[in-house]
Structures are given as C-alpha cells and as structure tokens.
Design a protein that fits this description.
By secondary structure, the protein is an alpha+beta fold. It has six helices and six strands. The chain has a six-stranded antiparallel β-sheet. The longest helix has 43 residues.
C-alpha cells in the first residue's frame, strides 16, 4: 500500500512541467528562509529586550510596574576574565523617546537617561573580589563605624561621602602601598561618569560599577537599596562576613549592619575592575 502511494506521488511529480517544478521548489525555499529569518529576528528581539531590562534594573532599580524583579542577570554566570573588557560605550546610550508617548513609563524614561552615563553591564559577577583594593576599602569603612559625620572623618560629612572617600582611598593604596583614608576630590563638573572619583550623590553612584550576584558579595563592594523615584537612597560599603558600614541619617553618623536583602537591593563592584567603571 505504501509502495503504491510512493509510485503515485512519483507519477504526479513527473507530470508537472519542469519550469513549474523549479518555481515550486524555489517558492518553498523562499518561504523557509523567511520563516527562519522571522524566528531569528524574534529571538534576537526578545534577547535585546531582556538585556535592556537588565541594564535598566541594574542602573535605576526595579521596575515598579512588575510584581517580580530579577535579582541577577538573565544570562548565565560569567568568569572573571570575561568582565575585563566591557564595551567602551554603552550601546543603549543613543536611545531616544518621544516625549509625548503616553505608552512609555517614567521608569523607562529614567532608564534611557541613565544609559547616557551608566556603564554597560555584563552578566552579574559570581566570583568574589580578590583585588587588594577591595580589602583596603573594607578596612577603611570599618574605621568609620560609630563615628558621627564630620567627626574627624577625612572628607566624610554625609552618607554619600562614605563610598566616595573609601573607594578613592582604596584606589590610591594601589599606588602608594598605604591603606589610609583621605578625602575624595570633587568630581570635575565637565566630566560625567564614575572615574577617577565617584559622583557626589547616591543616585549617581548607583550607576557606577559592575553588578554583583548576592552570592559573590565581597569587601569593598557597594550595596544600594531603598529605591525611590527610580534611584537608590541608601548606600553602604561591604566590610566582609555579611556586614556593611552605611550612613544612618537618623543617627547622623555611620553604623555597621547586615547586608540588606530583597528585590530592591543592588550590589555593584567598582574596585578591582579593569574597566575602571
């Protein structure tokens, strides 16, 4: 029975004029190619959308319109070697939005603005920081535990000054060989970005560095939380063993507390990164 079906099919194909047969085959090839291109474009579009959301989530915090926020990169874990060469320019920096587009949320608008100065984020680091500057930063932050703002703390007169002076001093230790707290200079107003010193606001500092998975939090990493209006309002420096030192506005000084957790916590690494971001 099956053999008869094959013979009938062969007979019918043989009856089709050769030019028509060629056109049919060509048409099938075109249809197949279009389906393949559609699949590739659809997959690429989904991938680009997920990546942009990850960039936004890392820079300005969770999207208020979503009930669940990814706390790590949607991409698989990365080795330290692959983090040494991120793009020199954020590929999303050139995005523009129609100011009258009512379909665009404020979170998306704030993200587009952040992309102009935020470094491009590779997958969240899942390896501890072994750079000596990280350990130095942790030690310097610990010396501020219990101090009131401006009480003999070099250049540290508020919550946002903590990471600025600690990170700057730790970077300096790589050159001087001495881990000592010094005041961070005021950023050059003609330059944007995070180097050679961090921005003067916590919101600006939240754009800096490379994202770190909670499992790899290390001394010297910066922890941002309590996001409001799409920007962090709290920052702390990891001192090791699950603790940070942070500025406590209610106490007017610095305190040591456990590393916060939750969907609105972002950990960034600015020390020991070859990119210097």
């Amino acid at each position: 029975m099956e053999s008869n079906d094959k013979r009938r099919l062969t007979f019918l194909v043989a009856m089709v004029p050769f030019p028509v047969l060629v056109m049919i085959v060509f048409a099938l090839m075109i249809i197949g190619a279009l389906l393949l291109v559609s699949l590739v474009i659809g997959t690429a579009g989904q991938s680009a959308s997920a990546d942009l959301h990850y960039q936004c989530d890392t820079a300005i915090g969770p999207d208020p319109s979503l009930t669940e926020t990814p706390v790590t990169s949607p991409v698989t874990a990365t080795a330290a070697a692959t983090v040494s060469a991120p793009p020199s320019t954020n590929p999303y920096a050139a995005i523009t939005l129609d100011p009258d587009d009512t379909e665009v949320s404020q979170w998306q608008r704030d993200c587009v603005e952040a992309m102009r100065s935020a470094p491009y984020q590779l997958p969240a680091l899942r390896m501890p920081n072994t750079d000596p500057t990280g350990a130095c930063a942790g030690q310097l932050a610990m010396t501020l535990d219990g101090r009131r703002w401006g009480a003999g703390a070099e250049g540290v007169s508020g919550a946002a000054d903590l990471p600025r002076s600690v990170v700057y001093s730790a970077e300096l230790s790589a050159t001087t060989g001495t881990c000592a707290l010094v005041a961070a200079p005021t950023p050059d107003p003609s330059r944007s970005g995070c180097a050679p010193v961090l921005p003067i606001t916590i919101a600006g500092q939240g754009l800096c560095g490379q994202r770190v998975d909670p499992s790899a939090v290390s001394a010297g990493d910066l922890v941002f939380w309590e996001y409001r209006n799409n920007a962090p309002t709290r920052v702390g420096v990891v001192v090791g063993d699950g603790w940070i030192v942070t500025g406590d506005p209610s106490a007017g000084g610095f305190v040591r507390q456990a590393v916060p957790d939750g969907d609105d916590v972002r950990v960034k690494r600015v020390l020991g990164m070859a990119s210097g971001s």
